[in-house]
Amino acid sequence: MSTVVATSSQSATHFAQPWPSGRGPSDRLRVTLMTPTDSVTLCALVGEVDYYSADVFRSSLIGSLGTAGSVVVVDLSRVTFFGSAGLRVLIEAEAVVGPAGGKLVLITGRRCVDRLLAAAGNVAVFQTVTSLAEVIADAA
């Protein structure tokens, strides 16, 4: 199993004080990429996915799709805020994974995630599960 932790090196010097207490995007969101099996790639998020941190999510997820397994799992179970910028990243990932014959699966369960996915139901529909074990069992 390989693990990569992605952080952002971008600075936001053009904003006066975009984050409370000087916190930047990589302080608000941690993205970890793993390959639990040959056919499954896991992108696990911890923290807030909003306008300011979405690029950290995007660069990690979209950047990994070229080497990803046939099933890409995005674990949103430890996200504390999930805004429309995060939804846009998921839509972009689906646009890459789907036509290539892959599958994008979301681990949800957080109210902030489930509520946004429900509201976006007419725009984007994603397969959701409650655990990585479910995905691995289905992929086997």
Report on the structure:
This protein has helices at residues 25-28, 54-64, 84-97, 111-119, 132-139; strands spanning 3-6, 29-37, 40-49, 71-82, 103-107, 127-129. By secondary structure, the protein is of the alpha/beta class. It has a 6-stranded mixed β-sheet. Helix 2 links the parallel strand 3 and strand 4. The protein is globular and about 40 Å long.
Distance between the termini: 16 Å
Which stretches are poorly predicted, pLDDT < 50 over at least 5 residues? 1-19
Q: Strand percentage, roughly?
A: 25-35%
How many H/I helical runs? 5
Dominant shape: globular
* Helix content class: 25-40%
Please give the order of strands in the largest beta sheet: 1-2-3-4-5-6
Structural class: alpha/beta
Q: What is the typical, i.e. mean, pLDDT?
A: 82
Name the helix and strand elements from N-terminus to C-terminus, one letter apiece. EHEEHEHEHEH
Supply Rg.
15 Å
> Largest sheet, if any?
6 strands, mixed
Q: Give the number of DSSP strands.
A: 6
What are the salient characteristics of this protein?
alpha/beta, 6 strands, six-stranded mixed sheet, 140 residues, disordered N terminus, globular
Quick rundown:
The protein has 140 residues and is α/β, with parallel strands linked by helices. The chain is built from five helices and six strands.
Secondary structure elements and pairings:
Layout: E1 3-6, H1 25-28, E2 29-37, E3 40-49, H2 54-64, E4 71-82, H3 84-97, E5 103-107, H4 111-119, E6 127-129, H5 132-139
Parallel strand pairs: 3-4, 4-5, 5-6
Antiparallel strand pairs: 1-2, 2-3
Helix pairs in contact: 2-3
